[in-house]
Design goal:
Number of helices of chain B: 15
Structural class of chain B: alpha+beta
Order of helices and strands of chain A: EEEHHEEHHHHHEHEEHHEEHHHHHE
Structural class of chain A: alpha+beta
Number of strands of chain A: 11
Strand order of the largest sheet of chain A: 1-2-6-3-5-4
Order of helices and strands of chain B: EEEHHEEHHHHHEHEEHHEEHHHHHE
Largest sheet of chain A: 6 strands, mixed
Distance between the termini of chain B: 54 Å
CATH class of the largest domain in chain A: Alpha Beta
Helix content of chain A: 40-55%
CATH architecture of the largest domain in chain A: 2-Layer Sandwich
Shape of chain B: globular
Number of domains of chain A: 2
Largest interface: A-B, 71 and 80 residues
Helix content of chain B: 40-55%
Strand content of chain A: 15-25%
Oligomer: heterodimer
CATH topology of the largest domain in chain B: Cytochrome Bc1 Complex, Chain A, domain 1
Shape of chain A: globular
Radius of gyration of chain A: 24 Å
CATH class of the largest domain in chain B: Alpha Beta
Largest sheet of chain B: 6 strands, mixed
Chain lengths: 426, 412
């Protein structure tokens, strides 16, 4: 056997990827329910999504605080009683607030779904926002922030978003001690009333569902016009990016590493260049074999890891290159990033590398579509962004067919070093 | 119930196959029975550094990652105090690429100076990123040295000090490889859209002719029972005081491990757990507090760690923790609370099993514990624990003489 010869492989372009369709139901009050069933495991995921992210705040941190505190006491039960019930069934009732949306997600064993839904209903429909829970939240969040502010990567992430979008835009706004101090229960109640309504709720469920899942959802979320109707208008907000391009910040005089960030604005996912740039970004810094990793980690050993990402924000996106590098090699790291940007502008990507990245990306998508929880996640991203499966299939097609010339054109348009903000936080 | 088949190659390599035809993917998991506990005390961090070198090319294949990515695959690895685990996920049609790559690096690495030079630097940056340049990042270095006198758990997987990694030599790397990275010390677990017959054929073809190697018989220093409380005060540039308390618990295969694990959940599992409810919510002494352990194979540490609310005195905070531990030693827990923590385990295991990668990884892990079948019996081990046993174990575990405490003070 000759071990130097690789076994034959099936190429990415030959893989036929299909996005398994969801089932859609509508509750009596009009709430859409997107369902992805599977009968393999005895587990369920049930997610309620609301347009209740930081985008809609009139006071900083309102969205996150409202979302967090809904679970900490209702008209009928204290935070402890709620936690006790959820924990008793080994379930997880998680909540998250993002830029645009906020969510409540239940994970549980199928057999416990029915007993947990009333608890979830209470939290979403009848939160009390007790005064003492808010003051505890403020205290503990401020303590957490104090610790995070010592970390160069945390500080760098705050600054770079501020440079990109401006501190008054929801994408560039950051938490602060003062903003926590200013939070009031009345503000949270008002935010809750306006953003957690039956008419702007979407439900996504996946897993091995109880046969009566739709009647159950109807019973707890579908029968009334809870919190009334709320008509939210979402307009693009003005972006005020920084004039200056280069920043060096000393956060910790004794720091042994620096957090390096290089970033620029980029159009959102609706722009025709977006799906193409996902491929160029992968080549540049989006996987372990990327140009940045090969050069800066595997060749020079400046860092444990370096990545480039494209933000998935709705109004406007950005390209952000990030790493933590040895204190004395931060500047050398930046030089190498620029060299790699220029190399993509000046030289077409070799066929072998492009083929490899096509295969890698398709394989990775295939892996990501494995299982009902992952599938509903993929659909959720499309639905919440007003897209359908054509967007997904077009992206796959782009991965399979994009040319080196087209990628070089994109590099020339978006990879000019002078367009990037440059930040080092030590 | 996880279904699997098991066989052993003539060279001693144990192979587990878990068929799952609902997925288009396959995973290959290779577990080597070597971790940081097997290191020479003068060359700590070696098992982990070695893990990095496993990606630097093997005897017949100059690049590990490229052919895998070309086949649509992804991979990673991790090292713990106990073991080193490598895993691949790729489309099932291309599974042979995984066998080719994994078998060649089990056969022999390329052993190149360049790879060692670079990975020494990479690991140094990893060390800095996680343990030096982070507030409280050094606490586990200090805790391990405080809690262990003899057992190699007294150093961290990343290594005791940077110099051990910086001084690593190629000849040490070679010796390490041929001692531990042999078929006789490894477990191959394959899962996904594959068949047992297919895996048998591929395993024979690619791994069958690798020399067996010598079985590594572990003979580690035994940690003597702790007979007096250990305490350490630290001052550092952090914004909040923190309290860390560790108690020696049981080995992973000890029956009493399960009671101790449930105790950690009673104290620290979820927002309704005792420590969070009493110390964060009611008494407002801590802004967060957790109780956990690492599930290590030899006797590990049951850990309580929390950050104090600004202005709270360390001795008041510690006393309140102590009271919670005494409560567990004094009163038998209710059946409902016992049922709660068992339900939590049941759920946790079910969610863990959802991922194909976890299933393949866990089958290899339980095989290392003695038998892959243990994976299917795991929940029973928790189900049989009684409230009386929890009570007994709490008395033993939380004995003051079994305690190790770090008072971590904010310097300004």
């Amino acid at each position: 056997m000759n071990r130097t010869i690789p076994p034959p492989i099936k190429d990415a372009v030959e893989f036929d990827i299909t996005l398994k369709p969801y089932e859609k139901f509508t509750l009596d009050n009009g709430i859409p329910v997107y369902v992805m069933k599977s009968d393999e495991q005895e587990t369920v995921q049930l997610e309620l999504v609301f347009p209740a992210g930081s985008w809609y705040e009139s006071e900083s941190l309102e969205a996150a605080a409202t979302n967090f505190l809904m679970k900490n006491g209702t008209g009928k039960h204290t935070a402890q009683e709620i936690n006790e019930s959820v924990d008793y069934y080994g379930a997880y009732l998680n909540r998250n607030a993002y830029h645009e949306n906020a969510t409540y997600t239940l994970h549980c064993l199928t057999k416990h779904t029915e007993v947990l839904l009333p608890i979830m209903q209470e939290v979403v429909l009848d939160p009390a926002f007790p005064e003492d829970e808010l003051s505890l939240y403020k205290q503990n969040q401020k303590q957490k922030l104090a610790v995070n502010l010592l970390k160069c990567d945390f500080v760098a992430n705050r600054f770079i978003d501020k440079y990109l979008f401006g501190e008054f835009h929801p994408y560039g706004r950051v938490s602060s001690m003062e903003a926590y101090d200013a939070l009031q229960t009345e503000g949270l109640r008002a935010f809750y009333k306006k953003h957690y309504n039956y008419n702007n709720c979407k439900i996504f469920v996946a897993g091995n569902l109880p046969p009566n899942v739709i009647p159950l959802l109807n019973k707890y979320f579908g029968s009334t016009q809870w919190n009334g109707e709320s008509n939210l208008i979402k307009l693009d907000l003005p972006v005020q990016s920084a004039e200056e391009k280069k920043f060096r910040i000393f956060n910790d005089e004794n720091g042994v590493q620096g957090a390096v960030r290089l970033a620029r604005q980029f159009p959102n996912r609706y722009h025709p260049d977006f799906p193409k740039m996902l491929i160029l970004n992968t080549i540049f810094g989006g996987y372990f074999g990327s140009r940045l990793m090969s050069n800066i980690r595997e060749e020079k050993g400046y860092t444990y890891g370096i990545y480039s990402q494209i933000y998935n924000f709705r109004q406007i996106s950005a390209i952000n290159i990030q790493t933590e590098a040895g204190r004395d090699v931060c500047e050398a790291t930046i030089d190498e990033v620029y060299k790699e940007l220029l190399r993509l502008q000046n030289e077409p990507i070799p066929k072998e590398e492009l083929d490899l990245v096509r295969n890698y990306m398709i394989g990775s998508i295939l892996g990501d579509l494995d299982g009902a929880f992952q599938l509903i996640q993929r659909w959720k991203n499309l639905i919440l962004n007003d897209l359908d499966e054509n967007y997904f299939y077009n992206n796959i097609q782009t991965i399979k067919t994009i040319t080196a010339e087209e990628l070089q054109r994109l590099a020339k348009q978006y990879y000019s070093p002078g367009d990037f903000y440059e930040l080092v936080v030590i | 119930m996880i279904h699997y088949n098991k066989f052993t190659l003539a060279n001693g390599l144990r192979v587990i196959v878990h068929e799952d035809h609902t997925t288009p993917m396959a995973v290959i998991n290779v577990l080597y029975d070597v971790g940081a506990r097997d290191e020479n005390p003068e060359q700590t961090g070696f098992a982990h550094l070695f893990e990095h070198l496993m990606f630097g090319g093997s005897i017949n294949i100059p690049e590990y990652d490229e052919p895998l990515q070309m086949a649509g695959g992804e991979n990673n690895a991790y090292t713990t105090s106990d073991l080193t685990n490598y895993y691949i996920q790729l489309p099932a049609e291309n599974i042979e690429t995984g066998f080719w790559l994994e078998s060649d690096r089990m056969l022999s690495l390329a052993f190149e100076d360049k790879s060692l030079d670079v990975q020494r630097k990479v690991v140094s940056e990893e060390f800095k990123e996680h343990y030096i340049n982070k507030p409280y990042g050094d606490v586990w270095h200090k805790m391990r040295e405080l809690a262990y006198a003899k057992h190699p758990y007294r150093w961290m997987t990343i290594g005791k000090e940077l110099s051990h990694i910086e001084n690593a030599k190629l000849e040490d790397v070679k010796a390490f490889f041929f001692k531990y990275y042999r078929p006789i010390n490894a477990i191959l677990s394959v899962g996904g859209n594959v068949t047992v017959e297919q895996v048998k054929t591929l395993a024979e073809k690619w791994f069958g002719d690798i020399p067996s190697g010598e079985k590594y018989n572990r003979n580690l220093p035994v940690e003597p029972p702790q007979t007096a409380a250990h305490k350490l005060e630290v001052k550092a540039n952090v914004p909040l005081d923190a309290l860390y308390k560790c108690y020696h618990m049981y080995a992973r295969t000890d029956k009493r491990y399960y009671a101790a694990d449930l105790i950690s959940d009673i104290l620290g599992g979820g927002s309704s757990s005792r420590l969070h409810q009493v110390l964060v919510k009611e008494k407002k002494l801590f802004s967060n507090i957790d109780c956990y352990h690492f599930g290590s194979l030899d006797a590990g540490l049951l850990t309580i760690e929390g950050k104090l609310v600004k202005g709270v005195k360390m001795k008041d905070a510690e006393k309140a923790v102590q009271q919670e531990l005494e409560k567990l030693q004094g009163e038998i827990i209710t059946e409902r609370e016992l049922q709660k923590v068992k339900n939590r385990v049941e759920s946790l295991l079910a969610f863990e099993d959802m991922s194909l990668l976890n299933r393949a990884n866990n089958l290899a892990f339980y095989e290392l514990l003695g038998d892959a079948e243990l994976m299917n019996k795991e929940f029973e081990n928790y189900e049989v624990v009684t409230a009386a046993e929890i009570h007994e174990e709490a008395k033993l575990l939380f004995d003051e003489n079994n305690s190790n405490t770090i008072y971590y003070y904010a310097a300004n």
